[in-house]
User: Fold this.
Amino acid sequence: MNLEEIYKSKIVTAKQAAEKVKSGNRVVIGHAVGEPTAVIDAMVANCEAYENVEILHMVAMNKAEYAKPGMEKHFTHNSLFVGGNTREAVSSGRANFTPCYFSEVPSLFKGKLPVDVALIQVTQPDEHGYCSYGVSNDYTKPSADCAKLIIAEVNNQMPRTMGDSFIHVSEIDYIVEYNHPIVELNPPKIGDVEKAIGEHCASLVEDGSTLQLGIGAIPDAVLLFLKDKKNLGIHSEMISDGVVELVEAGVITGKAKTLHTGKIVVTFLMGTKRLYDFADNNPMVEMYPVDYVNDPTVIMKNSKMISINSCVQVDFMGQIASESVGLKQISGVGGQVDFIRGSNMCKDGKSIIAMASTAAHGTISKILPLLDGGSAVTTGRNDVNYVVTEYGVAQLKGENLKDRARALINIAHPDFRPSLIKEWEKRFKAKF
Ligand code: COA
Assistant:
């Protein structure tokens, strides 16, 4: 058979593809905006045919209907990261949460959590028969690399991304053709608080630095203040639209990068069509699986690596909680610790935790003497270095516990400083 015949021989409807999934299977769903939605919807519609299908996923951008009430008999959702669409399912006990570093997910698939079915979304094959993983390489490619069965949604609107980002059509078991725009994530609103945080973070970025930025208003605000920098580079779990602007402005060139010089290295994309068009067939953007991009020993090969991530609470010792508030799970570690360690280990690197000083409309301080009971420590006190709020920068590495707490109180919201100082004086039996 030639490539076209091979391709055509694999085409099924979404319903037929869903029928290939069997009770008791472990199914890994392609990540974030790479979710193969037609097959997922068909699987949910076919739920009566299944008992105990385990669905593994991280950031669910669509409806996550497999985790809704009434689905318990058919599906068990095992979340490796909790986002807005799965938070309620995890907190109500219908879905499970498995803590793990993002960089370790592929090794779990090869060992402890073997994959029966990988549901992926890819581009149409090129003239050599290769389909690109497009917006989501991360754990999606590794899940297909070791799955017993691969079902691929082929979407002619998926950007063709480069790097180690391809699967040959002959490796796919079933193909569902479904052409649709990639889900877009509109840029967040950047307020005064985010701008102040962005400015403080940007003050730590030297020309020639390589950046990792998370998602949301704070990373986007940082990008706003980098317009005068030179030869910045990107080695990041994900990128969003802000990066495109800085490439077009000639700020991000990657020329000073000590690993993949001249390239933007990333494992997934999440933004608007502008970002997806930028990444399409662009040799500057290289996508690799997450066990490469997020491996701290790879990250550390970049010099002047700067990681910028966020959290929900920091205690006086510098313990960072980013995943839960008390026992309430709101997120996961994602790549935070991977990048904090990688940037701490690299030459002239800096790891930054950037956050607003308060939560819940200013009623709760995020800087606290102790984390809430039950909060998971995401980044330990031995790993943390810079903490930034709208009130400034606290540099913690190498500082003793007393001085760490003092530095943190100095960047807390002024309304909370008197009570924090009282706690400091009680704990350290000294005058602040
Ligand atoms: N006390 C109580 N609730 C809090 C809180 C606190 N100290 N801090 C945040 N929250 C609540 C918010 O009110 C919000 O609730 P809502 O969704 O019901 O409105 C929710 O927790 C999320 O907080 P928010 O400030 O909106 O989050 P964010 O979009 O700025 O993201 C993290 C912050 C920490 C959740 C996010 O950065 C994350 O998931 N980090 C871990 C993973 C990571 O770092 N990955 C890095 C590579 S992408």
About this structure: The CA atoms of residues 120 and 152 lie 5 Å apart.
